[in-house]
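Section 5: illustrative case.
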């Protein structure tokens, strides 16, 4: 009897410890098979379309290049035609790569390390949607890059397919997506930690620098960069918001009738 009591007492103590730990850490986010299936499916469809549509993007011809005039560019974007810097392009590649791998820092914090699956799925969805949407729009709009108007750039460079993929900036979109994502998620896990303000400031500054470097490289106009910043920030904020625990304002419903439809319901 004493041994049984001892075992029960030990089991009770262990249970209390486990429950205490569970209460102490309650994840602010949760995964949903329906919602995540829709998000991953949508992102995959966008990415697939971007690859498919790229096959039909025609590069500039000699006659089209000869007709280019920077006077055809709006006054806000026109100065971009005078910029061309290979080093800025290289630094922008390094900057966006650094920002996109920055969520790996979540491994250093206990709460986020214990919730890596949820964070990883959310981040993967945000990148998939950001990249797929940007690539699709680039192939639909076919906007000429600023350097195509620059007489110092060889025509052979202008005739590459990439020269008509200016709108909008994928580097900037991915940089802001990652910056807003890591800042938002960290703030949710550590709402009382003053470091969250530093993370917001540093990540957004790095994302802004990426956009500026794309401008200096002659790759994008200011409007390309602004559009990239807005769309990237939106996905970086929206994906975590959709997964937030206790979020009753957003729901996904699949209805079947004559046609199967997916409805996203938001209430405010």
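Designed sequence:
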């Amino acid at each position: 009897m004493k041994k049984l009591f001892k075992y029960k007492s030990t089991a009770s103590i262990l249970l209390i410890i486990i429950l205490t730990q569970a209460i102490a850490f309650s994840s602010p986010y949760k995964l949903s098979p329906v919602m995540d299936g829709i998000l991953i499916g949508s992102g995959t469809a966008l990415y697939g379309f971007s690859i498919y549509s790229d096959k039909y993007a025609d590069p500039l011809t000699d006659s089209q290049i000869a007709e280019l005039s920077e006077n055809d560019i709006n006054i806000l974007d026109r100065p971009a035609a005078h910029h061309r810097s290979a080093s800025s392009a290289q630094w922008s590649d390094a900057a966006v790569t650094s920002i996109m791998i920055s969520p790996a820092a979540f491994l250093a914090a206990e709460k986020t390390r214990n919730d890596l699956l949820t964070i990883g799925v959310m981040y993967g969805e945000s990148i998939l949607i950001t990249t797929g949407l940007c690539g699709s729009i680039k192939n639909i709009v076919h906007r000429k890059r600023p350097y195509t108007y620059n007489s110092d750039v060889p025509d052979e460079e202008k005739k590459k397919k990439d020269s008509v993929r200016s709108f909008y900036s994928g580097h900037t979109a991915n940089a802001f997506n990652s910056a807003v994502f890591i800042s938002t998620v960290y703030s949710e896990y550590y709402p009382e930690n003053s470091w969250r303000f530093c993370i917001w400031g540093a990540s957004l500054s790095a994302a802004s620098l990426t956009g500026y470097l794309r401008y200096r490289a002659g790759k994008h106009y200011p409007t390309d960069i602004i559009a990239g910043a807005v769309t990237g920030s939106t996905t970086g904020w929206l994906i975590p918001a959709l997964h937030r625990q206790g979020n009753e304002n957003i729901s996904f419903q699949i209805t079947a009738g004559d046609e199967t439809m997916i409805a996203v319901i938001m209430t405010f």
